[in-house]
């Protein structure tokens, strides 16, 4: 991976680790937010490897679908679930919606799968 892509992946891994810690302490909203940003940064890392960049979250997910899902380089269901986590994060971050423990656990587990899949995509 390029240095810039590695920076995105380092950020993804850090947020994933902190998401796990937040989950353990019962900070479920924080866990969801951190898990979502772990996936977003991993997606940005993959896009960076293709010299693709987006300014927005929606743009990132759109480019990711075009570059990786439509070309069948990345699992459709996994990418879709990652993108849909944004709605849960928005509710938690901006609407103070209560996040159920199982939803938080699901988001963190999904982020672990997503980040691992991006790692596998670029394993040498």
Explain what this protein looks like in three dimensions:
The chain is mostly helical and 124 residues long. The protein has a single domain, classed as Nucleotidyltransferases  domain 2 (Four Helix Bundle (Hemerythrin (Met), subunit A)), CATH 1.20.120.330. It contains five helices and no strands. It has helices at residues 3-25, 28-49, 57-69, 76-94, 101-121. It is globular, with a radius of gyration of 14 Å. The N and C termini lie close together (9 Å). The model has no long low-confidence stretch (mean pLDDT 96).
What topology does this entry show?
Blueprint: H1 3-25, H2 28-49, H3 57-69, H4 76-94, H5 101-121
Helix vs. strand class: mainly alpha
CATH architecture: Up-down Bundle
Number of strands: 0
Percent of residues in helices: over 70%
Name of the top-level CATH class: Mainly Alpha
User: What distance lies between the first and last C-alpha atoms, to the nearest angstrom?
Assistant: 9 Å
Radius of gyration: 14 Å
Order of helices and strands: HHHHH
Shape, principal axes of CA atoms: globular
- Would you identify the regions where 5 or more consecutive residues have pLDDT less than 50? none
Key traits:
124 residues, mainly alpha, Four Helix Bundle (Hemerythrin (Met), subunit A), 5 helices, 79% helix
